[in-house]
Amino acid sequence: MSRRIRIGGRQSQLAIVQSELVKHLIEQKFPDITCSVFALQTLGDQQQSKPLYSFGGKALWTKELEDLLYDEDDNRKLDIIVHSLKDMPTTLPDGFELGGITERVDPSDCLVMPQGSPHKNLDTLPAGSVVGTSSVRRSAQLKRKYPHLRFESIRGNLHTRIRKLDDPQNDYQCIILASAGMKRLGLGYRITNTFDSSVMYHAVGQGALGIEIRAQDKEMKKILDAVCHKNTTVCCLAERQLMRSLEGGCSVPIGVGSRYDETTGYLHLRGIVVSVDGKQAVELNQELAINDVIRDSIECGKLLAEKMISNGARKILEEINLDKIDQ
User: Fold this and answer.
1) 32, 67, 87, 106: the active-site residue
2) Is 296 considered catalytic here?
3) Could you tell me the fold of the domain covering 229-327?
């Protein structure tokens, strides 16, 4: 018997591409299922003038969509929501759960220079050059290596940010973006350089898609289990637990790196917490054998968080007053 699944996501071009990817994964695996994609505006899409941390964080991307998972109107009701996993709160409201995680695309952050720029990396930029990023995690880590640069907020979808960058009248000498989004939109050719963990750890869940469902929706969970990615799930569950245990919100400067070796069965998790000015940092790692995907991945995140807290990570986070950040 044929079945229809209603997929919800945000209205941005990237979000639509991501929802279509999940549609393809499901329909490829289950030929009797037809998926429809619905693109909806959220409060986060409407607020483009201020940094995210200043007016509500990750819930801005999720609440309107979550309401539709339980909508009484069958013409509006959604079955699943597709998010960039890095935008999903690590603790979901009652009645919702993370139903699955898709295979990760490049989780790194990347440098984008304006067209015609002679610069290929941050090392050659003169003192006082303006780097555009709305992420406290990115600016805090880069201030450790490049204290002579200025970091200012830039909002908007990827095309908007790149258009601002290329405008000869703009104030930015470069911008920092997620490599995965650039590649999913066919903009990989604009990536000037990518950052490894020696310069910048990526965001929790970056490069992966998280699929939100109604809690205890066993039928949908069974479908998602068949299309999601074990290796990515192990890494991202550990990363999300690390952030949850550190009590980190949307934009606090927590960076991660993870690698799950399916041959040995070990997960290698790294994390960093940096003060907003880049002057203090706690950077540690944890390894753990993964016998049970959910239990052991979460345990690895907890163990690393405990280790980081005992070395001062929570003190750094507690001293952050996002209202007073000079971006």
Assistant:
1) 87
2) no
3) Double Stranded RNA Binding Domain (3.30.160)
